[in-house]
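Example record

One chain of 342 residues, shown exactly as stored in the release files.
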Amino acid sequence: MRKLRVVVMMHAALVPPDSREGYSEKDINEWRVEYDVLTALKGLGHEVLVVGMEDDFVELRHAVKEFKPHLIFNLLTYFHDSGIYDSAVVGWLELNKLAYTGCNPRGLLVASDKALAKKVLSYHRIRAPRFFSVPRGKKVRRLPARINFPLIVKSRSEHASTGISQASLVHNLELLQERVEFVHRNVGTGALCEEYIEGRELTIGVLGNSRLETGPVWELTMPKLPDSAPNIVTSRVKWNLDYQDEIGLETSKAKGLSTVKGKEIDRLARRIYRALGLSGYARIDMRMDAEDRIWVLEANPNPDLSQGEDLADSFEQRGYSYSQLIQKILNLGMRYEAPWKS
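Predicted structure tokens for this chain:
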């Protein structure tokens, strides 16, 4: 295996310590993915340089000049406090003819704009909940035609369940207006309002540029969630470890899926990945309703790479150890045919 010089690009606030010793599980959870990726890269024998990014390219530009990396390992999820600007950072990497891990800027831009992504999926006749979006500064006066309550209201462009709580599920116009204003005011983005699909929460990981590999269908369950609480992945569910224990949060291989249904989900994930122009790696989130119909919720390029999280766990069942998965993602970054290469 070729040993590479790798710059690991991450948020400055999430640069991890050299050891987890002495830190609480809550502390570790903040920088778990950064720590796990760095540990794997070093264990693989690569020469690693960490660059903690703020809101400029000064340190990255210096690292590229002095370290001359073979590749940038991209762990950024936002830039200038905006999730949609992660595509601009990757665009900068391409303009500087640098190889990088994860999704290309076009795929990131389309997938990060959830309303735009849904329009692309609609063009490809891929089933997704009906929706409408409300730009900042605009109000909801009435429901558009053919849209029905209940609706779930979330940010049009932010990741990681930002701004999603149990109050995000609304059943009337007054609550809808309140929640849209909440997203505008507190998240600072447009609001995406889509019909709520009751059902099983399924995900599937995808690896690849042109040739694709998929993991097994994965499922998120919350068996101790109160009956009055909607079955949605809120910000609290995603990030609060105590609450995860309280509701019995578990992610594992989906049980009871027929072979036919599993193949349907696999084919659908590949179609979505290609329709949105993704590369590197991604996680596709879906719902399966009571009639076993699959509904696409969203595609997540560059999802959580923590050891023990959905993507790593699912591909472990395909024979990838965590280190092998990280090496695979490195290889995909090196082989991606960016426009400048041609």
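Notes: The chain has a mean pLDDT of 94.
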